[in-house]
Amino acid sequence: MKRVFCQRLPITAPIFGLAFAAIVSVGCSDSSSDPSPVSVDELKGPGKLTISDEGDGKIKLKWTGSNNEDDFDGYNIYGRKAATAGHPATIGGLSEGSALQLLDNEGEAIAAAKSTLLEFNYNPSNGLGLAAPLADNNTQLGIQSSGSKDEEKFEALPIHQLNGTGEDAKRLLPTCKNDGTGNCVNTTADNEGQTVEDNNSRYAVNGPISYSLSGLKVGSTYCFLVLSTFDRGEKVSQSSSNLACITPKFAKTATLTLPETGNIAFPKLDLSSWIAACGTGSNLNSCPEVAAYYAADSKIGGHIAEDAGPVYVEYDSNVGQVFVAGKNSAIADLGYYADGFADSKLPAKAPKLTLDSNPISDTNNAPILNQGGYSIAGQSIILAKNHVYVFAVGDAKATTLPNKFHYVWAYIKDKDAGTVEFRLPKDAE
Amino acid sequence: MRRIISLGLAIIATTACDKSSSSDPATATRNDLNPPSGLVTVTGDKQIELRWQAMNAEEDFKGYRVFAVAKALSELSQPSYPEGFSLDKLKKGSIPRCDKNSTLFESFGFPAIEAGKKECEGDEASDSATSSKSLALIADSTSTDTAQSSKNDDTDTLPPQVVKCADRDNKDLSTTHLSLKPATTPTLTEQVCVVSALADGTALSNGTTYTFFVAAINADDDFEKVKLSWTSNFVEDTPAKALFTGTVTLAKNKMQFIPLTALQEKNITALESTDCDATNKGCSVYDNNTLSTKGIYFGRGTLSATSKWYYPQRSFISATASDELKLLLRGPQTADPLRAGTIAESIPEDEAINASAADAYDDKGRPQPVYGNQVFDYQIKISDKIHYGKIVIKDVKLADPTKADSDVSYDIKVILQEDPENTHYFN
User: Fold this and answer.
1) Considering CB atoms only, which of B59, B92, B403 is closest to A41?
2) Whole-prediction pTM
3) Is A64 close to B129, i.e. CB distance below 8 A?
């Protein structure tokens, strides 16, 4: 038998807001409670949540599950845009990396946790932008209540689809269900209410599972957490996954003709101009083609630190193809990654470039403290198959060393064909 | 013989005195006892560190048992339940101990399941996860009666000998009945267990491949009625020794050299050191690494009055230019086991040392910058045998950060990969 925990606060207990008070009273009633946590021995929560960036506002959430409970019917995914971009992010007092606990060790509801969940109120028409909890008359959702408040089951809404429109619109919950192959797909009118007991080979989860989401804005930070559910998402696990956050990047794939001989006008990759064109005009959530910014430079032969750059692609008879950074830029070779940007072993963040003040032309010192593993301008870095590089691109016109760089990631997917995949965070750091 | 306290215990005590084991625990459903998941290993010198994810707060949950055998996974019998399971799928998925899987569990010290006992039961629907190349255990074939994964008769203890877990400081974490007794937690938690011996006390040895799995344990306080969870995924690993641990210190115009052939064959305690030609290209590693002795060079960029693009503060690593020695930067080393990998796991066949093309690896002696927190893989052929190893570089430091030509130093560790397919992550 499932145990549902609720807590009736005394009148003198602090009230966090009208919506929260409503939750408290509703939470102690029957099926209209909102959502009620269930202890872990009845319903296991989800495991570690990670997010992979698939470029241009598309992401994939991945977590592990161990749910064979008869009444298990899927997962609620709560999502929210952070107030400011950047990491670590915090939503409603919950820090990135932490899990939300809805019950304490005595099995009593934790009031603050409900408040945190209210921050994730999802409106299918507005996407992940809502900041305020649901109003009593439900006007924020544009769905009119057809009856008493009790019929509105959720005030802290996970991501969900709607079935129907206007007054007849119905929320399809939980957010998603296993399709039998480890993809958590949006609940449909056909399968809502289906549980492990109805079809365990489809709905049970024993291992990794993922959910895809698109339409996010590059450069904004979004955070998500996952809860296991019973009863069309009305009852949830006492613990959520960790809060995982991501700031989507631009993504582009290019085919570049790499030089195969020396002492020629080696090509320059004008990343500065490319970066400036990303996210503007017709590319509001994307970048223009990289190849348009790759062409032979006017100079014959190898480049030096004072050349404009940012990045040259050269050929040395001894060493082979190399990248060379120009002025106010630097290159780091992160190493071999068989699966490129999908490789789970790839570091999540680009190493940060720090410079000291010694000018390049000072032959006694030169810039010494190129922390982060970056080359310095004029220095060659071997261009190798399946390696991932970070180009730190600073303002080439700056007369003093820049303190902010755009970090462009590049993966040499196919060296023979010159196929290079790029990722670009929206903002310089 | 122990004093007999009760009839039940008397039966156990009697059989415990026999050569045949009475250790035949029941199996709990996954709903009743959450199995460990995500088991990975870290290869060590005569030890293996196991790490797994666990979420256990069940009422009678007691802890975990680690099971180990000195065999590769391919040498074990295939499980037959759930249908479609294979040894390869075991690397990602879990199975129950029941009659169809008995032979596999016997390898780990369990008794054979008596006929008619512990039947694997339920419909064995086809494993819909087979269509997904990235998932092996989503909605695997399970009993439609989720209350049972095997017909259980609550019986008694586990296999008597325990694989002991230690922490990273070598403190014993095991008890009489458990490899590891952690605190319960309702949230997913990583458990860590360092294993240096099998259950019978035989120490792990370098070069031998071991297979491990972990199970959660429900029991009464006396461990007389025990239930075993479904297993974690199964993993293999082969302990390997560290060939060399030391510090590279490079003054200007200096190079140091690790002769890998000598390293494979005997311990060395110091690197070979040599002066560079300061008037020519100085410590340009490329010019010096065409020597016949196969090994790894560490060198400095050169401070030159005429060439401002030599970088004295930069340190380089390079392998001797040879088809029989290859070097590959694998990225940073972190504490996260998912941040490193094995050669066989990540490098396609055509990158192997015998292949004609190996653009990912470097075999031309090209210098690669050393900047700290890096891991390199190498392959070297010695007398027609290919040896695999890792070079870990930590903490590159300039003795005087204001002087580009002051000494550069960093710690390195060279680790042998006895069995590159089963050398995972590393410390």
Assistant:
1) B59
2) 0.80
3) no
